[in-house]
Write a structure and sequence with these properties.
Blueprint (H helix, E strand, L loop, with lengths): L1 H30 L4 E8 L2 H11 L4 H4 L4 E7 L3 H13 L1 E2 L5 E2 H4 L10 E6 L1 H5 L12 E7 H12 L10 H40 L9 H14 L15 H11 L4 H7 L4 H8 L5 H18 L6 E2 L6 H11 L2 H18 L11 E2 L1
Parallel strand pairs: 2-6, 7-8
Antiparallel strand pairs: 1-2, 3-5, 4-5, 5-6
Helix pairs in contact: 7-8, 8-9, 10-13, 12-14, 13-15
Length: 362
Amino acid sequence: MDFEREIDDLLPKHRRLTASVESILKNLIEQNKIDYLSVSGRTKTKESITDKIKRKNYKDPAKQITDISGIRIILFVESDIKSVSEIIRNSFSIDELNSSNKDEKLSLDRVGYRSVHFVCDIGNNRSALPEFEGLDSLKFEIQIRTVLQHAWAELAHDRSYKFRGKLPSSIQRSLYLHAGLLEIADKGFSELATEIDDYTQSVNRSYQAGNLDIEINSISLTEFIEGWVRQNDYPLEEISENVNAPIAELVKELNNFGINTISDLNKIIPEKFVEISKKLNYRTNIFGFIRTIMIINDVNKIMSQKNVNWTIFDPNDYDDEMRFLKALSSPDNFKEIERIMTQEMYRFDDGEGTFDQHDQDI
């Protein structure tokens, strides 16, 4: 067929298009602070294109095939689909005739394949840019799914799995019942995500009103620390690769230390923490920040906890850290810090210069 000859010319352009659109979408989603599982692109092969033309019996394949370039976006919660759809509408030119929302097409008494599909081109603004030269007339498809919608599609739609096709009535009914459970769970997770957002906003409103009498949890702790570092112009470092503990561990350590509210935590932050930090050029991440505050207040109390699997001795920053801890600790507490540091130094100097594998410094 004539279109087969065009495919060879089109495929290099579509490969460029796929890579460009994938990159654009990742950047846009991240800029809008939307969490996602993946954004992945693919370009159909020549064999796949010709097979689709034959299978669909296309009369004008150049216009009818709109998914040579395809991008799939997998989100965690259903409520974010609307936000991502709005980003797409504001960023590309939409072919409304060929775009669809599979969820809306399901009748009220049916469950099944659910996904939002957009057919787009790059639009007039981008087509004028040199990097998009030759791509202005090409269409591409964007699919948006949640993790659970994707799971269903992979099981019963996209793959040649045993659930695909026409099954015996009793099995088919059971399959759709379970699909319904996935849909309910999807909506439930979306509602929970909204509740978390609402709670985060209420916590920040309380902080702004001066109310710190809020229980410590992963959300309230993170929001408080982020606000504290902004207010005190004390940016925290990115979490290094050797710190793999979740924020929940910090919450547990604080609770065991006797810190149960944000107000309790705020009271034990040394008044001159920022001043001394800047003077001695002391920088740390959120884990080091919280743990250092506890060390400064009562090193024995924190290091005696059963769940502590980190060390306070760091051979690379020993002198600077000791000056910092001495400046903010009581004399008696600093003596205990020195004692514990000495013990950890002996452990470090075991002939190989390494801690036990499970240990990490703060």
